[in-house]
Amino acid sequence: MSYEGWILLTASLVGLSCGLIGVFLILRRMAMMADAISHTVLLGIVTAYLITHELSGVYMLIGAIVAGLLTAVLVQWLHTLGVQQDASIGVVFTTLFAIGVILIATKAGNVHLDVQHALMGEITFVPWNTIDLPLIGEIPQATFILLFVLAVVLIAILAFYKEWKITTFDAALAASLGIPVVFLHYVFMTLVSVTTVASFDAVGAIMVVAMLITPAASAYLWTDRLSIMLILSAGIGVVSAISGYYIATWLDTSISGSMAFATGVMFLISFIGSPKHGIVSRFIRPYTIASTQD
User: Fold this and answer.
1) Range of the domain at 50
2) Is Electron transport there in the keyword field (predicted)?
3) H/E/C letters for each residue in the chain?
């Protein structure tokens, strides 16, 4: 595959995995948790490096999972103590992210971990860091990790689709049916953490947040069916990734930033043109109703 092809494939995998996970974040009204975890995984990554002195994907994933779960636990703990959830998220993620930044500046300044890289990523370098797989040959490490994470996300969603659906829309009903709501919540937070860190090194925190929230929010405007919403969100993520790359090539600017911008454009199109919730439909609906009554 060409250099450009690997970049597009990697970005598309980010769009797919983040788009699928993002639907449940939006429906559970936990969009800000995506922002929180996408920043606090930095602490997990740098801590894993300081312990192992390696930047391999396995150690990064472990560190990110721990940081993501720590974020979820601390947010839930503060919320149970009476702190509003949005305030809990703000306090936890800014504190943990700040600790990660301080550790990078003081302990990991001699490696490629830096704040700019953490925020914007460096997807242009992805095709150069390869691993050799049997029967497949050389493949970028970030692409392989994203393929693995996408498979895990798909298996988790398909295997427990009914459980995710019930716990998302009515947690009280799910608990009364004997579904382990708290356990599934932390499993979901683990999936968010794994998806985030898999995307983190390639595209940075900004695009991770954009891909987790915006495609799902766009899909939410088009349909009320969960299955269709999942497909639409994943598709919008892929379209945003590909179109963002060509926008960046045209303007000679940041690829990750352009992909995040493309998700905003897709949301704007959905916000205006959605047949049910779009601005245009809201404007013409009263006139349509009036004409049918006449």
Assistant:
1) 3-293
2) no
3) CCHHHHHHHHHHHHHHHHHHHHHHHHHCCCHHHHHHHHHHHHHHHHHHHHHHCCCCHHHHHHHHHHHHHHHHHHHHHHHHCCCCHHHHHHHHHHHHHHHHHHHHHHHCCCCCCCHHHHHHCCHHHHHHCEEEECCCEEEEHHHHHHHHHHHHHHHHHHHCHHHHHHHHHCHHHHHHCCCCHHHHHHHHHHHHHHHHHHHHHHHHHHHHHHHHHHHHHHHHHHCCCHHHHHHHHHHHHHHHHHHHHHHHHHHCCCHHHHHHHHHHHHHHHHHHHCCCCCHHHHHHHHHHHHHHHC
